[in-house]
Design a protein that fits this description.
The complex is a heterodimer of chains A (138) and B (384).
Chain A (H helix, E strand, L loop, with lengths): L13 H9 L5 E5 L5 E2 L14 E5 L3 E10 L12 E8 L4 E6 L13 E5 L7 E4 L8
Antiparallel strand pairs in A: 1-2, 1-3, 4-5, 4-7, 5-6, 7-8
Chain B lengths: L3 E8 L9 H16 L8 E5 L11 H8 L7 E3 L6 H14 L5 E8 L6 H9 L14 H15 L4 H15 L13 H6 L2 E3 L2 E2 L9 E9 H4 L7 E10 L14 H14 L8 E3 L5 H10 L8 H6 L16 H4 L7 H13 L13 E8 L4 E8 L2
Parallel strand pairs in B: 2-3, 2-4, 9-10
Antiparallel strand pairs in B: 1-7, 1-8, 4-7, 5-6, 8-11, 10-11
Classes of the chains: A mainly beta (138), B alpha/beta (384).
Amino acid sequence: MTASESLPSASHTIDEFVKGYEEGGRLRGFRCSNCGLITATWGLACSRCGKSTLEETELSPRGKVAAFTILTVPGEEFLNEAPYAYVVVDLDGGGRVTGWMPSVRAEHEVEIGDRVRYVSSYKSGVQFVKDAPTTNPG
Amino acid sequence: MRETWVVGAAANRFGKMKDSSREAATRVSLEAIRQSGLEPKDIGYTFVSNCFGISEHQAHLGPLINNGLGIPHVPSATIESACSSSSAALHEAFVHVAGGFADAALVVGVEKLSHLDTLTATSYFAIAADYPFETKNGATFPGLYATLASAYRQAFPTRPEMFGAVAIKNHANAARNPHAHFQKEITMETYLSSPVIASPLRLYDCCPFSDGAAAVVVAAKEFVKSPVTEPLVVRASARSGSVTDMQDRPDLLGLPATRLAAEKAFRQAKLEPKDIDFLEVHDCFTIAEVLALEDLGFVPKGTGAKAEFDGVTARDGKLPTNTSGGLKAKGHPVSATGASQVVEIFEQMNGLAKGREVAKAETALAHNVGATGGSCSVHIFSRR
């Protein structure tokens, strides 16, 4: 970082990110005003171009499944939730997020490319549900 | 830079240790030092890896090990890089010896998890992922590799038997390795009928939770003079990093950290993949071995799973891979894994790998990944 670069505008904390998912919050993230990277992962500088030009942004709640798994053996915090899908989602406006889908419990219930929608969850974590296909994504 | 050798390497039997991490680490360290022909007082620095020592109420293991070896004045430090911890420690030892800051250095990795229940152990493993952005979103360690397997399966024609071939081969190798956790062969039927843990990964796609300890002694060529074993010349010691989160990776068909570390290592060694006789790669899950073969440059992208099924990686194949049994069947005591890969290469090159020898053991590569690829080590060794 050079002296002339201003401090990053990203001021929110990881806690605010995570609590936001529980409290009816929007899906939040950052956009790099230098290279255009969109990310949901907290940071002070862009993981692609290295510039501290991240600006807070709201991410699109809709997207497509890029990869998934059905977890039958969960970790401690999801003990009573299995089986469920863990998904990597390409958001319509750019950027990827990972999340979980409690409504998807078997492999034949989801495919790569399926449309999904973020919903605020009673439980921590980014939660998705299946979304109706649309002819005009984004 | 000084020419640097691995002059001793030792491991215990992976699986379930009665010993504490402290006891096991001290025992394998002394064994590796004795094997090298050096004495504990020759060690100039001890690098320890022990990710989950806190579960044994013990951190700061280095001074305790050194004390047990009779060298309490020797400096030590703990190096943590998740599953690639002890290969990271090896890199630090290499830097110290090659750079002239120590004539000889001890690397020891140890892990004990068998006193924990499966749920606690699963949760411990998951904290090496991004806790708020992956684990809190429902990820487990098998789950993260399973998403990579799902992307792979979508992009390339893959049958379950192709992943199964990795498991069967590594179990067959482990059955011939006295250090291995699992010493039994499995059939395709056993593989296919094992329960799904994180689709498409089945139980037999996954490495076990293992206890274990492994130690490596590195020393400057000019310090050793007349080695008592066949030393491994460290031709490359390369490390890399990568964005940690799956959500920040544009490409899910491989691990960028592996590609970067491999490029660095081959450049450092002035070698190419065709020069490597056999390799130990990071196969925490079968998909990980497939991705490693491709990302290291041994087979073209998308052909790794088929190469496994076709026997390319068998002991008598063109590219013997994980003759130790790998993480998959030798076991994966997290912080001991990287050092244990070097133990296998050392045993192969010293004619100690009885019953699982490779045809040619002149040059070998070791590949060790931290968690889902936030960090990676690639080492290349050859005989003098």
